[in-house]
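REQUEST ID: PR-0412
SUBMITTED BY: lab tech R.K.
PRIORITY: routine
TASK: structure prediction, single protein chain
INPUT:
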Amino acid sequence: MTLGENIELAFNAIWSNLLRAVLTLLIIAFGIMALVGILTSIDAIKSSMANNLASMGTNTFNIIRKGTGLGGGRRGRRSRVGQKISYKQAISFKEKYQYPAAVSVSALGSSSAVVQHQTYETDPTTIIYGADENYLNVAGYQLEVGRNFTATETELGRNIVMLGTAVAQKLFPNYSIANIVGKTISVRNIQFLVVGVLKEKGSSMTFNGDKMVIVPLQTLRKYFGSQTNSYNLSVMVSDALAINPAMAEAEGVFRRVRKIPVSEASDFEMEKSDGLITLIVDNTATLQMAAIFIGLITLLGAAIGLMNIMLVSVTERTREIGICKSLGATRQTILIQFLVEAVVICQLGGLVGIILGIIAGNWVTFFVGGNFVIPWGWIGLGFSLCFVVGIISGLYPAIKASKLDPIEALRYE
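STATUS: complete
OUTPUT:
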């Protein structure tokens, strides 16, 4: 018999015992869904975060409070949180750092603000961020329309804003992007003039740049200073090869600003964007291995269930096997027929599981701000595992069926 004929016989057998086959198929489908779903969500989140960090460039580094970075909790330990970076310290560093680089001072004012324009308002998840004139360039943002803040506006604290794409679209649904500049919005009943709209930035697991409203740094201190936990320092050098000496000098300057004695360790951390990408990849690799392990355990249970179903099928079809052998079917023919049936059930379950896994994984990433992905590598892994499970689960029942004596099988009732 050809492979096509065996597959046709497998589908006929599945159809004749549809309920049992569907239940077995669903066991496999849920195992594959768990595997592909978790891995898809991890890949989507990792891709989103890596893209956002990469947009900052390999020539950028940040100075942050110790124990608050992505590497602060590696191996289950989190460093003791260092003293917050005050506005005075941040500005002092910006003035004293003489290395040829752009220094930006910024801070989070609120992550749960509501912004209004006439009858339109945003969800209470809008981010109010304070920044200086260097922030857009250092952080990798670009303007769609309008202009950046000037150094004078940043120091004087004018009531002007730059809007993220999502905020602009929410507040001005009937305007083109070009016509938004010059309009007025309000935050906590405080009026602000829109001077620019940012190009679409995308989002990561913890931050959505398109839902951000940027105000001058002094404006943030005036209206949102009580909610500012610590100020952020970002430095961008012109040459990526010069980033290490730039970081070394920055550490020395900021230690002097913080008045840290020579004998004591720094109470702040310095992070490079490419270093964060490497950290993300390393940490998610562990999660991926854990997800694969969980998926394999689920598939082991599915394999046991499928083997049991196939053994029941052999018992029920004993007389059919006897007829086939009496008509000239060889042991190899019977063996291949049952193996193909097991593999077909597994592959059908795998197909359903992969589709559900992609939907579930991207559904999770949608809520955490990730990007939609189709994990071709994990799809290939899912189909491969289903093939292996089908062979393992169907081998013993197929051997048992092939060894049946045709005369005894014909007598079976």
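NOTES: The chain has two domains: 3-52+279-411, 83-266.
REVIEWED BY: pending
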